[in-house]
TrEMBL record:
Keyword vocabulary terms for this entry: Gluconeogenesis, Glycolysis, Isomerase
Family: Belongs to the archaeal-type GPI family.
The protein, known as: glucose-6-phosphate isomerase
One GO BP: glycolytic process
Length: 192
């Protein structure tokens, strides 16, 4: 019996640079969030209004996958260094629309804090740095805060059907805020 020999070459899959979080892929989705998009997110609204509307606070690149049950999405958030008043730049933060869906973050570069706010427990935080791994449990809102002088990049993997619920945190927002004070980075309960 003759063996059949096929000349099949493997395809090259999408790639991610683990130093920067940038994807090399044909089908990417990009989203940029500027200071004008973050009304009501920072404590000092008048300080936010003094910044240029088009100032980019963060951008996200997502490796496009099918939006169906059982699929996963992967994306990188690139959070710029900066402050609004004395409050560090941060993402809007969100719960998942499907609250039971968890997520993983992987710190790639820069330094910062991941704020985690469970629905039925006190908020807490974790340091984010190159090589850090963060499990974001179900029923937990999450937000990245850049406390450094360089871009903070974190790779995320989450269920495609999880969705984002930004409104659940409004108008109160997260119960913890992160400030730059004379003696360093300071976490403070909101509305203090």
């Amino acid at each position: 019996m003759k063996s059949l020999q096929l000349n099949v070459f493997p395809c090259v899959p999408p790639q991610v640079d683990l130093l920067t979080g940038r994807f090399d892929a044909e089908n990417l989705q990009y989203k940029s969030t500027c200071i004008r998009d973050l009304v009501g997110i920072f404590r000092d609204e008048s300080a936010r209004q003094l910044l240029p509307d088009s100032l980019e606070v963060y951008r996200v690149e997502i490796l496009v996958s099918p939006q169906q049950e059982g699929e996963l999405l992967a994306g990188t958030t690139h959070l710029m260094p900066g402050k609004v008043g004395d409050e560090f730049f941060m993402t809007r933060g969100h719960f998942h629309q499907r609250r039971e869906q968890a997520e993983f973050y992987f710190g790639l570069r820069g330094c910062g804090i991941l704020l985690l706010q469970p629905e039925a427990a006190p908020a807490y935080s974790e340091l984010v740095f190159a090589g850090s791994v963060h499990h974001i449990p179900s029923f937990t809102a999450h937000r990245l805060v850049n406390t450094g002088n360089d871009i903070l990049s974190a790779l995320a993997v989450w269920p495609a059907m999880a969705g984002h619920d930004y409104q659940a945190l409004q108008p109160e927002g997260f119960s913890l805020r992160v400030y730059d004070r004379e003696d360093g980075v300071f976490l403070e309960a909101a509305n203090v």
